[in-house]
Amino acid sequence: MQERVAIVGVGCTGFRSITPEQSYKEMVYEAAMRAYTDAGVDPRRDVESFVTVAEDFHEGTSIFDEYTPDQIGGALKPVHTITGDGLHGIATAYMLIRTGQFDIVAIEGHSKASNIKTLSEVTAYAQDPVLNRPLKLNSHFIAGLEMNRYLFETGTSHEHCAAVVVKNRYNALNNPFAPYGADLTIEDVLSGSMLSWPLGKRETAEHSDGAILMVLASEDKASYLTDKPIWILGAGWNNDSAALENRDWAHAIYAEEAARMAYRQAGINNPLEAIDIAEVDDTYAYKELQALEALGFCREGEAGILTVEGFTSPDSGLPVNVSGGSLGMGNLLEANGLARAYEIVLQLRGEAGARQVEDVNIGLAQSWRGVPSSSGAVLILAN
Amino acid sequence: MVLLNRDPNSPIIWNGELPITNRYTYGLAGEKFFRTLKDEGRILGTHCPHCERTYVPAAIFCERCLAKLNDWVDVGTTGEVNTFTFLHVNLNGSSLEKPEIIAFVRFGDGGLIHRLGDTNPDQVEIGMMVQAVFKPPSKRIGSILDIDYFKPV
Amino acid sequence: MGMRKVAVIGAGMTKFVRRAQETPKELSWEAAHMALESCEMTMDDIEAVCLGTAPDAFDGVHLNGEYLSDGAGAWRKPYMRSYVGGGTGVFVPIQGWYHIASGLFDVVMVVAEEKMSSYYPHAQAAFLTIFDHTTERPLKPNLLWIFALEMNRYMTTYGISKADIAQVAVQHKRNAADHPCALLGDANITLDDILNSEVLAWPVQRFDVSPVSDGAVAVILAAEHIAKRITDKPVWIEGVGWHLDTAYWTNRDLAYPRYVEYAARMAYDMAGIKEPRKEINIAEPYDPFDYKALHHLEGLQLAERGKAPELYSDGTASRTGNMPVCPSGGLLGVGNPIAAAGLMKIAELFWQLRGEAGARQVPGQPRRGLAQAWGDLMQVGTVVIMGR
Amino acid sequence: MTAKIKEFPGISLNEQDFVDGKILYNFDKLNGLYAWDTGVGIGSYLASLKNGVILGSHCNTCRKVVVPPRTICEWCFRPMDEFVPLKDTGIVNTFSLCYVTWDVKRIIDPEIPAVIDIDGASPMHGIMHMLGEVDPKEVKIGMRVQAVWKPAKKRQGSINDILYFKPIKEE
To answer: In whole angstroms, what separates CA A224 from the centre of its chain?
Structure first.
């Protein structure tokens, strides 16, 4: 068994609403080359196993894992696919290295959301085919139900949610990879059209295309490959009820449980004290607030107030989604968590450019699999 | 990142589809739940004595302990609005002319997702009691749509 | 520090049927529930859950892993679904293995489910969507093509006859007659029945093919200290291996499955096996089509290239032979609910190595067995070696 | 264990059970429409097909010519060095005589799918396509074939711009 595992290389294409000049394979190759160059490894020689995250209906191909190896250097090597978020993928690579059987493992995730012409209908096909799908409802209704109950139980206001949009899209202006940067006011956000009241369209992340690949290594290899290893202190993942009828509508239980698992590994008792920067799921604005509470950064009902007060802005108490989050970078389907973790890696290395936060030693990334799932993951990284 | 130049006459996209057509059985629990809904206009749950939870709609297993559930209970047709939303978009993402009121109506420890009717948006609130409005027996087919909608009590 | 040892300590499965009444969740639950009961454990003992199911097209649910999670026992537990096409059934126990070998968990439930009948009217049509969307799907390919193309190449390269291959279907379907979950067991089937069956896609005939099926299988894996406490007959996972070849399947020789060889070598290395033909007592190679069992026995180094039919003609592969092959009845006999079929092979080895396989029991107290699956575009090999 | 267990779960239905209304069920159909970006490699392949040319690509490091063309060599992971127009002739690597369509309809005259190793590409490098203008009984592995193209005006930049491959008559 190998105890310690580090991220030793990262590569990313940047994100845009469309990417018509390249196929998904060419896009993934671009991220892969950057990551392997960053890590100083040759995938054909050095990388011993590969993990990818993908969903068939997002790709338009059944058993999509078929098409994953060539563009990541994985042909005729141990490659497998997880139908999870990118953070599930990182957790998988982490486990593979910890077995002692592999020293260097790569993890890839991407989005070609722009290629799905009927994304909302594809998403609706994830609803229970007997209980829910006959109602023929756009899946945003699930977020609407969840947000309403969350606001009701916690006393969070609509303005609090809008403040998340203002912050994250403003942060995105400092991120050259983020296509949705904007300088908005709370009124701008609230005056947009409704998706599923109380959820507004401007509180929902647009989709983007892009790819991310990361290289993980065991402690021995990591110290040989890089002088800036980013250590995995903890990885947690969890599922709440799959059935809409059985879940707790107000709370992100999956995030609570995933955080519990990750904190236990990392030996963290007081997250707010221990963690210097966080990148959390904000595919819907209220999700960021719900996540901050589930992750134990504050008590229930406080996240919105802290956001309005600026506590989660860059260079404040706990900078959250300095990258711009999904609201600023776009919803990347299975790659969302990788984008969150990518920012944490840059911050911990001190390579985040104009948006670099000072004195960061421990960072947290969190993700959610989107409606109608109740599945998410948490990763804790340190420099 | 590549050395090759794209043929300037290349088509940018290739259009296609996933031709997926499915037939779903209702399963062990669904069979009894929906037969009872259709034939008797009753909503059934199942109870797990070990976890002290009542699943609605009825399930054949407890998701917590995986025990088989044999204890069927009638939970009535009136439940509490646990949460609701006004949905402004269609299945395909286009705007609805008039938003639909969608609610999660609590029965036992579970409940049903459905539409609300016979009410206007201003009157809907969390905690209100609503009742299932069934289609006439001759029009029921054994479906969640055998309930037309829920209306305030 | 050495590697953590991982054992299989319980198993359960549903019957494999053409059309199940159960929903996919319910099938998963039935197998999971039975696996728990088999080792007298409860959900409180299960620390994480791994799920295998192949394309979402069959169950007919997008994000199918999320949909199936409650049936698989994943409520408020760490849960992931993995897939490598048809190889998934033997991959998902590997996924369970690395969960435990990583030191993060001690007890993991592994579930594999497939309900092919939900793809209606014809499950086979779903396979159109596994081909490249731009360069191949416009030709309207079907699943039979890839098998027929590979089978023809294999037969022609090594001069193997249809009769050589049909022995496999005969033996597996006869073996399956003893499996209580089997869909197509037939104790009296003959070589002529296979050879005279309807031609679907020459050289593939109706009885060369395993049946479209619904079903689920579950096994419980545990770390050494737990396994020894729960049972005096743990079956250890001694080696695992998997390899995925390039997606450009028309750019490689289909006569020999080198990805299976690579996967097998990885597993043999881990298990410390130097001479597989002497050290493997039972083989459960993947047999969705009869020639595939032969193809895989060669890739697994259990037969010389082109010589696997001899294992069947000289009796080596029979249930009482020196190296029984598919004593379960395999996919050809028990059925082929894709991911579940692969995990069925793991359950079979578990029962065989514990001497609990009933009428199917291989004599001589076998010590070590191998299960293998294959899938995608003739591309992936997954191998698990289990031993007492 | 299986010896001890008498009953395995799993309820088997007949197609007639659905017809007779003995069980409840419903239908659904995915409206899954996609517009996949073709990119540099496959975009150029399709453009070439429209001009009646099968395009490959060449890796200097591995000294291989592959088809369909890609921009990355999966074996050395370096960018491919150049596009290479290939011939429209080749050798049957393997084939089948298929009496069932993709959606499981029976047909009398078989479709003949084949892998055809394309002349000009490295050995064992081919594409999947159909054979035509040939008696099914005459098809052999190793047989030489040539593409039959749609008329230039009707080509769309698709793999279907080749109708099928037919045997080359040996002079």
So the answer is: 29
Inter-chain CB proximity A239 and C77 less than 8 Å: yes
Which residues, numbered 22 to 41 in chain D, qualify as contacts with chain C under a Cβ-Cβ cut-off of 8 Å?
Answer: 23, 27-28, 30, 34, 36, 38
Name the amino acid, one letter, at C127.
F
CATH number of the domain at C6-120+211-387, please? 3.40.47.10
Report which residue type is found at C23. Answer: T
φ/ψ of residue B135, rounded to 5:
-70, 160
Residues paired with A366 in a beta bridge: A378
Mean pLDDT of A314-323: 96
With H, G, I as helix, E, B as strand and everything else as coil, classify residue B102.
strand
What residue ranges of chain C have pLDDT lower than 50?
1
CB B48 within 8 A of CB B62: yes
* Nearest to D3, CA basis, from C354, C318, C198, C226: C354
DSSP calls for D61-75: TTTEEESS--SB-TT
User: Concatenated DSSP letters for C93-143?
Assistant: HHHHHHHHHTTS-SEEEEEEEEEGGGB-S-GGGGGGGGS-TTTTGGG---H
Picking from A231, A296, A293, A233, the residue whose alpha carbon sits closest to that of residue A260 is A296
- Kindly tell me if the per-residue pLDDT of A115 is higher than 70: yes
Residues of A in contact with D36 (CB under 8 A): 23-24, 60, 112, 115
pLDDT of residue C81: 98
Strands C199-202, A5-12: pairing is unpaired
Task: Report CB contact under 8 Å: C130, A88.
Answer: no
Q: Are A242 and C70 in contact (CB under 8 A)?
A: yes
The residues, any chain, with a CB within 8 Å of residue B81's CB and separated by 6 or more, are B103, B104, B105, B106, B116, B124, B125, B126, B127, B128, B129, B130
Chains with 3 or more CB pairs under 8 A to chain B: A, C, D
Whether A141 contacts chain B with CB within 8 A:
yes
Q: What is the pLDDT of residue D101?
A: 86
Cα(A80)–Cα(C80) distance, rounded to whole angstroms? 13
Structure tokens at C22: 């159960």
Given the DSSP bridges, would you call strands D106-111 and B95-107 parallel, antiparallel or unpaired?
unpaired
Phi, psi at residue B50, to the nearest 5°? Answer: -65, -45
Q: Which of A266-280, C173-187, D90-104 has the lowest mean pLDDT?
A: D90-104
Q: What is the CA radius of gyration of chain D?
A: 23
Is the backbone of residue A122 left (phi > 0), alpha (psi -120 to 50) or beta? alpha
pLDDT of res. B1: 62
Long-range contacts (CB closer than 8 Å, 24 or more residues apart) made by C186-192: C186/C333, C191/C163, C191/C166, C191/C167
Q: What range does the domain containing B85 cover?
A: 27-152
Please indicate, yes or no, if residue B137 is contained in any of the structural domains.
Answer: yes
* % residues pLDDT > 90 (chain D): 90
How far apart CA C273 and CA C280 sit, in angstroms, is: 9
| Model confidence at B148: pLDDT above 70 | yes
Pairwise CB contact (< 8 Å): C247 & A80: no
Is residue C373 classed as helix, strand or coil in its secondary structure? strand
Q: Do A237 and C79 touch (CB under 8 A)?
A: yes
**DSSP tag of A286:** H
A354 phi/psi in degrees, rounded to 5: -60, -25
- pTM listed for this prediction: 0.97
Q: What SS3 class is residue A164?
A: helix
| pLDDT for residue D104 is more than 90 | no
Q: What is the Cα–Cα distance from B94 to A48, expressed in whole angstroms? A: 47
Give the CA distances from residue B118 to residues A360, B152, C154, in Å, rounded to whole numbers and listed in that order.
Answer: 56, 7, 68
C-alpha–C-alpha distance, residues A203 and A222, integer Å: 40
We find that the CATH architecture of domain A5-117+207-225 is: 3-Layer(aba) Sandwich (3.40)
Collapsed DSSP state (helix, strand, coil) of residue C287: coil
Alpha-carbon separation of residue A236 from A232, A263, A347, A380 (angstroms): 11, 8, 21, 9
